[in-house]
Structure formats: structure tokens, C-alpha cells
């Protein structure tokens, strides 16, 4: 007999679920960046290549990707604060307002960071 | 499949308790990373005048300070632990390695130690101001 | 007024695939979703299978997936669904035995691993074992669990890892770990603090969303995690076996 499971798709999964999935995905993205970061930085061991590599990487599209990375780090870090608070027993019952509170902090920081990175992407500043 | 058939011989999959320390360390490194990565990014990208590319010289200047070198080393160690334990958690969540958690932890620890050694070599290059290999 | 019930059907003796069947159910004031299923069973289709017992939300038999939400059929007023179409499916992530009846054996096997019973602490008292208001408050919420398995069905860790004990089992473990009258805290903590236990919970809150009794399982599991870690710190109590029983 073939095992049959209900194909029902729950519609009640709100951001607790999505916060978790995004935390996972952003974590794996950052880990992958970490590997690339170590490889790039370690060119310092191999004579003279470091400055060339850094020069080559200082391109608008790379800096744009770095901005995306910063967003991933911001999300992972701020949602991480939420998870840390849960682990010491704070805010579990207020997980939703806590999430949005931290995310609005994230938006403010993201605007600040994007502004600082704009000269390397478009040559001008955000404001 | 009959219930009795499925229940027969069922045993607990694991009794290891590595989870408690891994969990606590994951939280601790998270806090360390939160503070140190802010310092790291600030010192590298915000505190420098201009927005040109990072150069060997600018990094050398920064990590010559024992404080920054320490920050970077602790950051590297924390990040490696946090990332590799994160990978371990994802694998365990998908049921991979649940039956041999010590093997999984051992393999990931080895990767972490190698990664740290590699990072230390890179840092030494910067501090000495000369490439280690030519 | 009539509502249309769209019910998940699967009969292993003749069906290869599951299907949905529609029924018209006349609704009167005060009718629950379970009453509608009983109407179908009595008047339309006697082959329809579903579980129910107490009809008052304490037995945990009739947890189903109703219009995309985890609900107890007996506690769901048809008029509260504010729709003339009701879709009823068995609990997701469990194997279907027939129609709306799922195989909960896997769940109860896991439950057994958490010692879901009180182990009396200390010597026999002269009268009853008393609890202060404060002590009782620790378990006020988790004691409401009726083992309907809705949270167990909703937990994404349980979807990907068949060994994970799951929110209902961990909540039940906390119900005794947090009970001042229980004497097997350390043994029980040891049982739920393995890699298939509390450390698989990542505060996803699907269980909390699913629970028809409005229990916050995440609070209970979070307390278990802290207690398990503190227990781990007490290295002088390493062997964990109390009351002369073997663990693990």
C-alpha cells in the first residue's frame, strides 16, 4: 500500500515561519560569502596580488552585491537578537511586534549603510 | 504497515547531549559576532577617508594594532564556529547525521580548525607586511 | 441554509490516490463542523471515516485541517467560518489510514519517550502533595494540552526530520519537568535534550499558530532548553539517573 499524506497546504503560516526560512537562507548566504571572503583576503599571502584583486573587486556591481550582503547580515543579526531574547525567556509571546520592531530598526540602519555605500555604486550619494 | 510491525524494535535514535553546549556557544558567538562585526565593518569601510578600494597597506596599518588583530582573530573564530554549527544544525534538521552526531561534529570541527589556521596565516602576512609565499 | 462540505477521501482498499468529495449539509443554529460530518455519516455517506469522541474539546480526537487551519471539528462553529464552503482535510504530515483518520502511532511512540507521567517526588506524604499558587502557575498553560497532534503536524522540523520528538511531546515533557511534585526532572530532561529533542526547535511558532487550545509551546520548549543547559552545567550530577531507574 502506498503511503498517502494529505496534500493540504497550511495557510496559517505567518512570519514565524518566514522569519525562520529567511534566517536560514541569509545564514547560508553569509556563510558562502565567508568562504569567498577568506579566499580573497588570503591572496595577501601570495605576493602583490592583494591590491590588484581589491582594485578589480571595487566595481559598482560588486559593491551592489555587498549592499545585498549587508542586508542579509542585518536581517540575520536583528532576527538573531529576537531569537537570543527568546532563549533567555523574553518576548516569546510578543514575537510579532518584536519582529516588526527589530525590522524597522533594520530599515533605518539599511538606509544609513546604503547612503554610505552609494559613492562606490553610482558615484553620488543617496540624498 | 501494521502499527505493531512499525513499533517493533523502535528505539531512541540518540542519547548524546552535545546539543546543550553547541546551543549555548551558538548564542555566545552570535553576541560576539554582533559586536565585533560592527567594529570590523566600521573600521574597514566607514572610518577610512574616501571610498576607494581596500589596499594591503591600509589593512596592514589597521591590524598592526594588537587590539584590531585580536578583534579580527576572535571574529574569525566566532564566525567559523557559528557558521559551521549553523550548517550542522541545518543538516540535523534534515535528519542527516542524527544517528552519528559525534562524527558530524568532528568533521565540521576539522574544517573549522583548518579555516582558522588559514585565516591566521593571512593575518600574519598583513602584520609582517610581506607575503608569506612568493 | 446549506453549506458545501468538500471532504478529503481515501480508502486504501480501493483507492490509488486521494480525492475530494462534495456534500450538501443543511445548517441549523449552533451547528459545529463535527455535527456536519455526523450529518453526512448518518444521512448521506456511511463510508466516511473520521475520529471524534467527547464533542467538547477535551479528548483531542477531532483535530482536522478545516479551511486551511488547524481546528478541532467539535469546537468550530460553522457560522464562525463565515463561508458556505468548508474544506476538510486530515492533519498534514501524518500518514492517512482512511479519509480523515491519520496514523498517530508515530506521535504516541514519541510521546512515550518523554515519560508522559508523573513520577512522585520524595517520600510518601501523610496527606496529598501540595502545590503553592506560584508552583502551579508554572504548568497552568501546558496542562491544557489534549494531545490532538495539531502542533505536531504543523512543525516544519517534524516535516524534515522524522526523528524529531515534536512540540506536543516536548510540551508534555515540560508539563512534568515544570511540576513541583515530579521527581524525575533530570531523567526527563536527559530524554528530551538529545539531538532529536529540544535543540531541533528553532522558534518557528507554527505550533503556536496551530494549537486549538492556545498553548504557547515555544515558551515551554524555551524553558526546557534553559533547564537542560543548566542541568548540563551541573557536572557533579553527571550520571543523571535518579530513583534507581536507568535512562536512555
Tell me about this structure.
The complex is a heterotrimer of chains A (127), B (134) and C (248). Helices cover 72% and strands 0% of the residues of chain A. With 127 residues, chain A is mainly α. Chain B is elongated and about 50 Å long. In chain C, helix 2 packs parallel to helix 6, helix 6 crosses helix 9 and helix 7 packs across helix 9 (217-233). Chain C folds into 2 domains: 2-102, Beta-grasp domain (Ubiquitin-like (UB roll), Roll), CATH 3.10.20.30; 105-237, Fumarate Reductase Iron-sulfur Protein, Chain B, domain 2, CATH 1.10.1060.10. Helices cover 31% and strands 14% of the residues of chain C. Chain C has helices at residues 33-44, 105-113, 133-137, 150-154, 156-160, 167-177, 185-192, 206-210, 217-233; strands spanning 2-9, 19-26, 63-66, 69-72, 85-89, 96-98, 101-102. The chains are: A mainly alpha (127), B mainly alpha (134), C alpha+beta (248). The A-B interface holds A 1, 24, 27-28, 30-31, 34, 38, 41-42, 44-48, 50-51, 54-55, 57-58, 73, 77, 80-81, 84, 87, 116-117, 119-120 and B 1, 27, 30-31, 33-34, 37, 45-46, 51-56, 59, 79-80, 83, 86-87, 90, 115, 118-119, 121-122, 125-126, 131-134.
* CATH fold-level topology of chain B: 3 helical TM bundles of succinate and fumarate reductases
Could you tell me the strand content of chain B as a percent range?
Answer: under 5%
Helix content of chain B: over 70%
Number of helices of chain A: 4
Unreliable segments of 5+ consecutive residues of chain B: 1-15
Describe the global form of chain A. extended
Instruction: Tally the structural domains of chain B.
Output: 1
Please, how many domains of chain A? Answer: 1
Radius of gyration of chain A: 20 Å
CATH H-level homologous superfamily name of chain A: Fumarate reductase/succinate dehydrogenase, transmembrane subunit
Mean pLDDT across all residues of chain B, rounded? 82
Structural class of chain A: mainly alpha
CATH class of chain B: Mainly Alpha
What fraction of residues of chain A sit in β-strands? under 5%
What is the oligomer described by this structure?
heterotrimer
Largest sheet of chain A: none
Question: What class would the helix/strand composition of chain B place it in?
Answer: mainly alpha
CATH 2nd-level architecture of chain A: Up-down Bundle
Number of strands of chain A: 0
Order of helices and strands of chain B: HHHHH
Amino acid at each position: 500500500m502506498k503511503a498517502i499524506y494529505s496534500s493540504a497546504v497550511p495557510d496559517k503560516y505567518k512570519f514565524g515561519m518566514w522569519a525562520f526560512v529567511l534566517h536560514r537562507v541569509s545564514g547560508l548566504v553569509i556563510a558562502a560569502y565567508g568562504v569567498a571572503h577568506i579566499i580573497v583576503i588570503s591572496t595577501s599571502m601570495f605576493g602583490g596580488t592583494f591590491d590588484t584583486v581589491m582594485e578589480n573587486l571595487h566595481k559598482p556591481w560588486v559593491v551592489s552585491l555587498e549592499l545585498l550582503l549587508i542586508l542579509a547580515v542585518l536581517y540575520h543579526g536583528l532576527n538573531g537578537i529576537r531569537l537570543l531574547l527568546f532563549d533567555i525567556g523574553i518576548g516569546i509571546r510578543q514575537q510579532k511586534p518584536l519582529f516588526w520592531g527589530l525590522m524597522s530598526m533594520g530599515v533605518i540602519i539599511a538606509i544609513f549603510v546604503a547612503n554610505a555605500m552609494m559613492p562606490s555604486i553610482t558615484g553620488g550619494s543617496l540624498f | 504497515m501494521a502499527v505493531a510491525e512499525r513499533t517493533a524494535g523502535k528505539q531512541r535514535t540518540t542519547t548524546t547531549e552535545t546539543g546543550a553546549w553547541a546551543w549555548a556557544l551558538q548564542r555566545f558567538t552570535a553576541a560576539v559576532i554582533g559586536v565585533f562585526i560592527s567594529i570590523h565593518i566600521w573600521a574597514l569601510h566607514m572610518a577610512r577617508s574616501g571610498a576607494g578600494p581596500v589596499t594591503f597597506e591600509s589593512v596592514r596599518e589597521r591590524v598592526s594594532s594588537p587590539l584590531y588583530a585580536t578583534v579580527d582573530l576572535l571574529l574569525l573564530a566566532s564566525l567559523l564556529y557559528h557558521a559551521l554549527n549553523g550548517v550542522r544544525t541545518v543538516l540535523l534538521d534534515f535528519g542527516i547525521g542524527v544517528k552519528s552526531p559525534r562524527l558530524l561534529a568532528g568533521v565540521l570541527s576539522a574544517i573549522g580548525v583548518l579555516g582558522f589556521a588559514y585565516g591566521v596565516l593571512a593575518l600574519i602576512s598583513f602584520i609582517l607586511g610581506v607575503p608569506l609565499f612568493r | 441554509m446549506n453549506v458545501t462540505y468538500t471532504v478529503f477521501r481515501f480508502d486504501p482498499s480501493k483507492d490509488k490516490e486521494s480525492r475530494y468529495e462534495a456534500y450538501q449539509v443543511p445548517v441549523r443554529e449552533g451547528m459545529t463542523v463535527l455535527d456536519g460530518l455526523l450529518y453526512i455519516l448518518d444521512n448521506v455517506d456511511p463510508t466516511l471515516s473520521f475520529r471524534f469522541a467527547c464533542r467538547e474539546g477535551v479528548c483531542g480526537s477531532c483535530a482536522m485541517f478545516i479551511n486551511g487551519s488547524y481546528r478541532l471539528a467539535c469546537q468550530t462553529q460553522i457560522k464562525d467560518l463565515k463561508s458556505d464552503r468548508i474544506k476538510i482535510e486530515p492533519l498534514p504530515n501524518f500518514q492517512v489510514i482512511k479519509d480523515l483518520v491519520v496514523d498517530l502511532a508515530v506521535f504516541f511512540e514519541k510521546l512515550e519517550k518523554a515519560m508522559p507521567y508523573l513520577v512522585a517526588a520524595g517520600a510518601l506524604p501523610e496527606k496529598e502533595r501540595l502545590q503553592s499558587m506560584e508552583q502551579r502557575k508554572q504548568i497552568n498553560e501546558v496542562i491544557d494540552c489534549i494531545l490532538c497532534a495539531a502542533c505536531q503536524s504543523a512543525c516544519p522540523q517534524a516535516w524534515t526530520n522524522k526523528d524529531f520528538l515534536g512540540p506536543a511531546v516536548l510540551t508534555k515533557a515540560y508539563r512534568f519537568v515544570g511540576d513541583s511534585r515530579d521527581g524525575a526532572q533530570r531523567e526527563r530532561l536527559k530524554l528530551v535534550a538529545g539531538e532529536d529533542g529540544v535543540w531541533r526547535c528553532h522558534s518557528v511558532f507554527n505550533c503556536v499558530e496551530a494549537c486549538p487550545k492556545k498553548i504557547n509551546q515555544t515558551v515551554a520548549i524555551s524553558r526546557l532548553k534553559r533547564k537542560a543547559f543548566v542541568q548540563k552545567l551541573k557536572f557533579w550530577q553527571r550520571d543523571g539517573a535518579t530513583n534507581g531507574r536507568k535512562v536512555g
